[in-house]
């Protein structure tokens, strides 16, 4: 087989890097198979062919990987980010062996987990020690480190993202230093590392401020989107956690309210039918009929209020928050100042309607409390998070490109884990404490070991 000079050089570089990787006994053992294994994210839109995919079992092994792996290193969680935070042609580093509850304090209701723990494993573990997370996102497939790295959030005007609940963490830096960080030890690093995009080092432990366990009642009902928007103040004030899934090309939305209760648990339901899943399936079907009869599409979609009905359910908080998402999609989400939420949503709906943009996935509309973390989307302002989705088989580029300028108009900040087209030049003005983050990053990782092309672009590193 004849190889071009370029191919020879490429293969030589891979072989050289692999030799470097395997010359260290720990790395050699970890990188057992000399073959490249592709990686892709949940939606399939992000892919890469890393030189090695490593999962160290101990802190010592982790330090060796970070300090001795050739080229770049990217920590990865469950691959549930839509944006290109993870892809690398260097080393992909999983903390899947850093898993489980490490310690807890019954007085302060704080608990420390290994950073690679999937959120789905935390609810029961916390309940067993008399604690619970104050709020959760709408899925629990993320790892704890992955979730805090992007300021992953649920909904509720009184609740911050997961990052706002972090009271301490352990971070391994590019030099292999193990830093214990909290409000009094390495406070500047701690502050920045609560939303780090995986650009400051590898988090190995995370301490969270929790509360006592509680049950939630979930109530879902379909109502006119405009009426729900007019009542937004009441909906958010009167419900601990309120959100809506707005059906595009229709006049209706699914309103979802979660409130604490001491009522007994209702019989368990199939998770595939919870959290709007059944609702999404009905919309998908109605949209299919609707595309054959475009003039009747709105009437057809509006008829879903007759098809969908929902029973209240009561269960432990972590069972209610988490949903199964079995329809794959790509997503763009921006957080705008809370008071601009209704106007921003109205404008998006008008655009979709006026331009007849091809989409059927509901728009998610939520509220999140302000925090003080330099790169959090919620830094310094109570926010309304609005997410637009596109089924993974449908082109999302044109749809997202049409909607994105509306978010910019309302000073929206993009969710770090979701799709957007901003770069450092456009992001920096949105974050008053931008320099606090970039300074810490430069100090901890001057050679850019933890960067990839996307991070270099959004953080403005040449
Ligand atoms: C179906 C679905 C539903 C979602 N729902 C929500 C939602 O309700 N609310 C919301 O806010 N977001 C939501 N998201 C987005 C998701 O929560 C975030 O993108 C989250 O960061 C993914 O976590 P992960 O474990 O998959 O991490 P990954 O996507 O694998 O990585 C995310 C970031 O974390 C970094 N990282 C991972 N591990 C470490 C570590 N040990 N140390 C340092 N950095 C690390 C990575 O380098 C990367 O920068 C959803 C995504 C999907 C696919």
Characterization of this structure:
This protein folds into three domains: 5-91, no CATH class; 101-212, Uridine Diphospho-n-acetylenolpyruvylglucosamine Reductase, domain 3, CATH 3.30.465.10; 215-421, FAD-linked oxidases, C-terminal domain (Vanillyl-alcohol Oxidase, Chain A, domain 3, 3-Layer(aba) Sandwich). The two termini are 38 Å apart. Helices cover 32% and strands 22% of the residues. The strands form four sheets. Strands 14-11-13-12-16-17-15-18 form an eight-stranded antiparallel sheet. A five-stranded antiparallel sheet has the order 6-7-10-8-9. Strands 3-5-4 form a three-stranded parallel sheet, with no helix packed on it. It is globular, with a radius of gyration of 23 Å. Mean pLDDT is 92; it is low at 5-9. By secondary structure, it is an alpha+beta fold. Helix 13 (341-354) packs antiparallel against helix 14. Bound molecules: flavin-adenine dinucleotide (FAD). Flavin-adenine dinucleotide is lined by residues 42, 74-81, 85-86, 95, 115, 137-139, 142-143, 145-147, 149-150, 152-153, 196-198, 202-203, 325, 415, 417.
What is the element layout, followed by pairings?
Blueprint (H helix, E strand, L loop, with lengths): L4 H18 L2 H6 L8 E2 L6 E2 L3 E3 L4 H10 L4 E4 L14 E4 L6 E5 L4 E5 L7 H7 L15 H6 L16 E7 L5 E5 L4 H7 L8 E8 L5 E10 H6 L1 H7 L2 E6 L5 E10 L15 H16 L4 H6 L1 H4 L5 E4 H5 L7 E9 L3 H14 L8 E6 L14 E9 L5 H13 L3 E2 L9 H4 L6 H11 L8 H7 L3
The structure holds flavin-adenine dinucleotide.
